[in-house]
Amino acid sequence: MSKRYRMAARLVAASCMTLLAAGCSDEKFAHQYPDVDVNVSLEQALRDHRIEIPKNAQDVQYSANSELEGYPLYLTFKDSCSEMKTFSKQNKFTRLSWEKASTTTVAAAAQGRGWTHRAGDYGFQRDPGATSKRVSVLVSPKGSVCHVWLDSWS
Among 10, 20, 79, 91, which residue's Cβ finds the most Cβ atoms within 10 Å? Predict the structure, then answer.
């Protein structure tokens, strides 16, 4: 059995065990997506990923599972577009052009949650650096309200 095959088999087994364990839990966390099992509170996931969301954020929803390799966090919220500059500074994000933002993993995930590209959409990114967490953000303004999708992983 090749080393690559053994590694893939271990990952599949770990994923199956995680899904089984998550599926057995009746615990629900505030703001979790209704169709996703999570095992970490939003507050804990934000601390672990060193992310601050605006205090007035609305329609906050997330998924996070600390048992998965890389411990991914996926988060969506809405807030005033005027808050996006502060949001990016607090989190040490660099603004991306639409061309770069459209190639991030968060763009693909956002499409799965109903987002469709509109003129004016843009993104942010934080390279791992000191936090060891890579973060991609997609922002879609509609009037004065911005819909934000965020994806963070190790």
Answer: 79
Short-list 81, 70, 61, 84, CA closest to 128: 70
Buried b (16+ CB within 10 A) or exposed e, 81-98: bebbeebbeebebeebee
Q: What is the mean pLDDT of the chain?
A: 81
Q: What is the mean pLDDT of residues 23-27?
A: 51
What DSSP designation does 124 have?
A: E
Paired strand residues for 125: 94, 136
Q: What pTM did the predictor assign?
A: 0.76
Determine phi and psi for 52, rounding to 5 degrees: -115, 125
Q: Which two tokens stand for residue 18?
A: 């995680």
Ranges of H-type helices in 25-92: 42-48, 84-90
Give residues with Cβ within 8 angstroms of 61, minimum separation 6: 31, 32, 33, 75, 76, 77
Rounded to whole angstroms, the Cα distance separating 79 from 146 reads 6
CA distances from 19 to 16, 62, 67, 69 (A): 5, 17, 10, 13
Indicate the residue type of 139: V
Pick 31 or 9 by higher pLDDT: 31
